[in-house]
């Protein structure tokens, strides 16, 4: 990843070392150029043309080449006008930002998409587990699931039918845990998760839903 | 949805995989992208200058000229390009709109030319970006005002059939309209001047003769002055009455400042007429004469400047008030100090604190009459401090007030502008949001309707609702929202329905309520709930649906009845659809209604028919169901309780 930092950074209080003018002038705008097309083609399951289309769209929205969390939330919120998508966008952002550096570059973006759109079912389930596991410790606890669930329900907004109640997310979490937590130890591990999902026809079918997206 | 982020829709849809494991209901089928053609470059030839862009860029905004099929009218077969005979400079910003999603207004462009271009290409100016919006609106308003001024001048020549009253009012307000009005204008002005001069000259002592001491002219030539006064007052009275008669809104006219001035100008004379005989109140009568000087304010009708000054003072009132207040504080302080300082000295003029006020004021305003001077040393010291501080206290706020006034005046104008624009902005954003939400709801209805019609193979073809062909983008977006609905097992509804629902839930406690309540009870279940919250004995016998307790064939497609005719007749038979009648009435069927359909599968006998189909997963017949067993064209959900109820919601 070539990150070319232009050599200007403006710091607010310049009373410190007067001789390091260059440091002070270093602009914090990071310009990011992604790896070459061939490399990305090799690393993901997208064709050249698809990568081109993806990159054009990506760069259109984020001319600097990276998405930070606020932009991400803005973009995602535009798809759900009735509700509040910011919490879920936050979790999504963390799921995409695999190296946890606070910004999603085009590589992260395209890797994530490659898994979601062209990956095997195993990989997709892995990704979903990673999304639910907020602290990335390998276990989904009820609290984590509740956070995720609330975030999803937040996206619905207020005007729903039937009317959303306070305990609806909690109930949904209970249902989920009943289904997934085989050994009833209060957490769902990756194996339980994958096992259970593979036995569920609906989930299996829905995994193939978005394959023709691009 | 801002189509500028259309490029991110695939991402949002892919991210929806994250909902799949927690969803309990099956997901709807994704719309297919049948247009497999590659993205191609389009050449737009605008008066010779060639612009090129991707087809998908233009497709982002399908309701504009370039984004829709309207551009085919401009297609040139020989050169394989789209030719527009328009201004290429203005076209730049229009094409940039497609590229970046933001419309900018180039400042060097003439506003009306730019407007024309926007209209030609089907772009509404309201979406101009924040950076250029204020400029655009300002220029537009200026232009409008300029046009309006022209129009008004033209208007003055026209309008032959105004009645007499309106003509008169117009004559009063705009003296330039007719000669009579001008004459009237000058005559009243003359008489105001005469009246004021008379008042002034009245008091001048004129011509002391030998045997009389100096008398003011008013007392010497009483009759002459009285006649003059009478004449003026008569003119003013006539004018006032005429204005009152001609005013379009008499009440408002009487409350206006100018009319109050008029009244105050002429009233003293009449009161004087009435009161001349009474000696006791002649003192008050004299005072009344003072009010005659208010006639001078009548000049403000003739002078624009006076009006502006009046408005200035009014708007600067708080600053003036502050000046007054601080002055008062300083005066009181210094007067007290001076009084106590001068208390000791004899024959001091500073007899009391109020008496010292006069000294303080005179000193602070640097007038210094000298009728009151301090004699003690302490008094002199404090007196000098007083005069020094007077300079500060008075001289400083005045320029501040002046600049304040100018700043506040401009600021007010700008703030009002911004406020008005902000309201419009927020309204636009809100409309866009509700628009997209409503678009989704509308397409849902249309989609369901179409599917049901498909399902039943309706005979009544003409009752198919007219469906706007929605773009692929929209259908994909709607599919995404649909998946979210499925995940949470709740549906999006609009505000109206939501409020209705809230009302209904509030009234749930009354069992005598219509069946819609019971339907609502049952509707608190999610579409695929495992535990039956309650077995509601629904009085749904009027529903012409077969009960699912009959262990009939695998699929019972019960009555999907398209009722024709009187919409009012639905109340009995569509008990559970009361909540959605509003929506249904908006469907474009000519005269058709669709009732519930229960497609039920073998259910355990414990289940009672649940006729509400308001939130069942809409089951579309999948075009090619690869993994569905052929006879079962309806997806089912298997819950742990084994309840397989698949409901089709109808509208």
Quaternary assembly = heterodimer
Largest interface: A-B, 61 and 68 residues
Overall number of strands of chain A: 7
Q: Judging by the overall fold, what is the CATH architecture of the largest domain in chain A?
A: Orthogonal Bundle
CATH level 3 topology of the domain at 164-302 in chain B: Four Helix Bundle (Hemerythrin (Met), subunit A)
Side by side, the strands of the main sheet of chain B go 2-1-4-3
Number of helices of chain B: 22
| Name of the CATH homologous superfamily of the domain at 164-302 in chain B | Voltage-gated potassium channels. Chain C
H/I helix tally of chain A: 11
User: Helix/strand-derived class of chain B?
Assistant: mainly alpha
Average pLDDT score of chain A: 79
List unreliable stretches of 5+ residues of chain A.
Answer: 1-20, 23-29
Please identify the top-level CATH class of the largest domain in chain A: Mainly Alpha
Q: Name the helicity range of chain A.
A: 40-55%
Described by the principal axes of the CA atoms, the overall outline of chain A is globular
Strand content of chain A: 5-15%
Mean of pLDDT of chain B: 71
CATH architecture descriptor of the domain at 164-302 in chain B:
Up-down Bundle
Main sheet makeup of chain B: 4 strands, mixed
GO molecular function (chain A): calcium ion binding; potassium channel activity; potassium channel regulator activity
Protein name (chain A): Kv channel-interacting protein 4
Subcellular location (chain A): Cell membrane; Cytoplasm; Peroxisome
Domain EF-hand (chain A): 84-119, 120-155, 168-203
Walk me through what this model shows.
- The complex is a heterodimer of chains A (214) and B (651).
- Chain A is mainly alpha-helical and 214 residues long.
- Chain A has two domains: 1-6 and 45-119, EF-hand (Recoverin, domain 1); 121-213, Orthogonal Bundle (Recoverin, domain 1), CATH 1.10.238.
- Chain A has helices at residues 21-24, 37-43, 48-61, 69-77, 86-96, 106-118, 121-132, 142-156, 168-180, 190-199, 201-207, and strands at 2-5, 30-33, 66-68, 103-105, 139-141, 160-161, 187-189.
- In chain A, the strands form three sheets. In chain A, strands 1-2 form a two-stranded antiparallel sheet.
- The longest helix of chain A has 15 residues, at 142-156.
- Chain A is globular, with a radius of gyration of 21 Å.
- The longest helix of chain B has 60 residues, at 397-456.
- Chain B has helices at 9-15, 55-58, 88-100, 111-120, 130-157, 164-173, 179-202, 217-220, 222-246, 250-255, 257-275, 282-290, 304-315, 317-342, 353-364, 377-395, 397-456, 472-488, 495-506, 515-523, 570-573, 581-585, and strands at 41-46, 49-54, 75-76, 81-84, 491-492, 556-557, 562-564, 592-594, 597-600, 645-648.
- Helix content of chain B is 51%, strand content 6%.
- Chain B has 22 helices and ten strands.
- Among the domains of chain B are: 41-157, 2-Layer Sandwich (Potassium Channel Kv1.1, Chain A); 164-302, Four Helix Bundle (Hemerythrin (Met), subunit A) (Up-down Bundle), CATH 1.20.120.350; 308-432, Helix Hairpins (Orthogonal Bundle).
- In chain B, the strands form three sheets. In chain B, strands 2-1-4-3 form a four-stranded mixed β-sheet. Chain B has a three-stranded antiparallel β-sheet with strand order 6-9-10, with no helix packed on it. In chain B, strands 7-8 form a two-stranded antiparallel ribbon.
- Chains A and B meet through helix 3, helix 6, helix 7, helix 8 and strand 6 of A and helix 1, helix 17, helix 18, strand 5 and helix 19 of B.
- Strand 6 (160-161) of chain A pairs antiparallel with strand 5 of chain B.
């Amino acid at each position: 990843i070539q990150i070319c930092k232009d050599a200007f950074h403006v710091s607010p209080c310049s009373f410190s070392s007067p001789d390091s003018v260059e440091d002070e002038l270093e602009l914090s705008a990071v310009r990011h150029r992604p790896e070459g097309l061939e490399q990305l083609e090799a690393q993901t399951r997208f064709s050249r043309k698809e990568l081109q289309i993806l990159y054009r769209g990506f760069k259109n929205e984020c001319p600097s080449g990276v998405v930070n969390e606020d932009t991400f939330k803005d973009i995602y919120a535009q798809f759900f006008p009735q509700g509040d998508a910011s919490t879920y966008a936050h979790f999504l952002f963390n799921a995409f930002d695999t190296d946890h550096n606070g910004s999603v570059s085009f590589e992260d973006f395209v890797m994530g998409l490659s898994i979601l759109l062209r990956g095997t079912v195993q990989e997709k389930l892995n990704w979903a587990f990673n999304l639910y596991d907020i602290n990335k410790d390998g276990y989904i606890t009820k609290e984590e699931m509740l956070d995720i669930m609330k975030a999803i329900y937040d996206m619905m907004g207020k005007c729903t039918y039937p009317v959303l109640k306070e305990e609806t997310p909690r109930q949904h979490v209970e249902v989920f845990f009943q289904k997934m937590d085989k050994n009833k130890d209060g957490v769902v591990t990756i194996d339980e998760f994958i096992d259970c999902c593979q036995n569920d026809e609906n989930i299996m079918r829905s995994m193939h839903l978005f394959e023709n997206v691009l | 949805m801002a189509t500028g982020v259309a490029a991110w829709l695939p991402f949002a849809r892919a991210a929806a995989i994250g909902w799949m494991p927690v969803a309990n209901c099956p997901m709807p089928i994704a719309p297919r992208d049948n247009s497999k053609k590659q993205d191609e470059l389009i050449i737009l030839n605008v008066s010779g200058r060639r612009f090129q862009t991707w087809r998908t860029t233009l497709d982002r905004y399908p309701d504009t000229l370039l984004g829709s099929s309207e551009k085919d009218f401009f297609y040139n077969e020989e050169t394989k390009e789209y030719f527009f005979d328009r201004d290429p400079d203005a076209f730049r910003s229009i094409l940039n709109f497609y590229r970046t999603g933001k419309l900018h207004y180039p400042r060097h462009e003439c506003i009306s030319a730019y407007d024309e271009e926007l209209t030609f290409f089907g772009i509404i100016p309201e979406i101009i970006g924040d950076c250029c919006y204020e400029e655009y609106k300002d220029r537009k308003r200026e232009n409008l005002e300029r046009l309006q001024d022209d129009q008004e001048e033209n208007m003055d020549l026209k309008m032959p059939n105004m009645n007499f009253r309106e003509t008169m009012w117009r004559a009063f307000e705009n003296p330039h309209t007719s000669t009579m009005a001008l004459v009237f204008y000058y005559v009243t002005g003359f008489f105001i001047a005469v009246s004021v001069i008379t008042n002034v000259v009245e008091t001048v002592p004129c011509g002391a003769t030998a045997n009389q001491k100096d008398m003011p002219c008013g007392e010497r030539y009483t009759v002459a002055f009285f006649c003059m006064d009478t004449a003026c007052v008569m003119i003013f009275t006539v004018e006032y009455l005429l204005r009152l008669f001609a005013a379009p809104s008499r009440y408002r006219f009487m409350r206006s400042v100018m009319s109050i001035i008029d009244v105050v100008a002429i009233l003293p004379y009449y009161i004087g007429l009435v009161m001349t005989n009474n000696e006791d109140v002649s003192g008050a009568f004299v005072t009344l004469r003072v009010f005659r000087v208010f006639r001078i304010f009548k000049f403000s009708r003739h002078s624009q400047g006076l009006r502006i000054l009046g408005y200035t003072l009014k708007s600067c009132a708080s600053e003036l008030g502050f000046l007054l207040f601080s002055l008062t504080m300083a005066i009181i302080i210094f007067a007290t100090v001076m009084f106590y300082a001068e208390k000791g000295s004899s024959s001091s003029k500073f007899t009391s604190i109020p008496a010292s006020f006069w000294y303080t004021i005179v000193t602070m305003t640097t007038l210094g009459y000298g009728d009151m001077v301090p004699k003690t040393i302490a008094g002199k010291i404090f007196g000098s401090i007083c005069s020094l501080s007077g300079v500060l206290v008075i001289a400083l706020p005045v320029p501040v007030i002046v600049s304040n006034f100018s700043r506040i005046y401009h600021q007010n104008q700008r703030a009002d502008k911004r406020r008005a624009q902000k309201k419009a902005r927020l309204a636009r954003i809100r409309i866009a949001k509700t628009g997209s939400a409503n678009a989704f709801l509308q397409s849902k209805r249309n989609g369901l309707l179409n599917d049901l019609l498909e399902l039943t193979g309706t005979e009544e073809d003409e009752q198919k609702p007219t469906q706007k062909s929605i773009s692929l983008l929209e259908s994909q977006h709607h599919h995404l929202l649909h998946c979210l609905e499925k995940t949470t097992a709740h549906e999006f509804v609009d505000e109206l329905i939501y409020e209705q629902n809230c009302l209904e839930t509030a009234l749930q406690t009354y069992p005598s309520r219509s069946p819609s309540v019971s339907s609502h009870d049952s509707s608190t279940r999610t579409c695929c709930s495992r535990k039956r919250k309650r077995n509601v004995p629904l009085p749904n016998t009027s529903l012409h649906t077969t009960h699912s307790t009959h262990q009939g064939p695998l699929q019972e497609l019960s009555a999907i009845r398209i009722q024709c005719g009187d919409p009012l007749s639905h109340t009995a038979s569509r008990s559970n659809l009361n909540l959605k009648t509003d929506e249904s009435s908006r469907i474009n069927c000519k005269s058709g209604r669709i009732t519930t359909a229960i497609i039920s599968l073998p259910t355990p006998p414990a289940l009672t028919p649940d006729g509400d189909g308001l939130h069942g997963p809409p089951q579309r017949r999948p075009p090619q169901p690869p993994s569905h067993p052929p006879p079962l064209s309806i997806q089912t959900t298997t819950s742990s309780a084994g309840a397989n109820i698949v409901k089709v919601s109808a509208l």
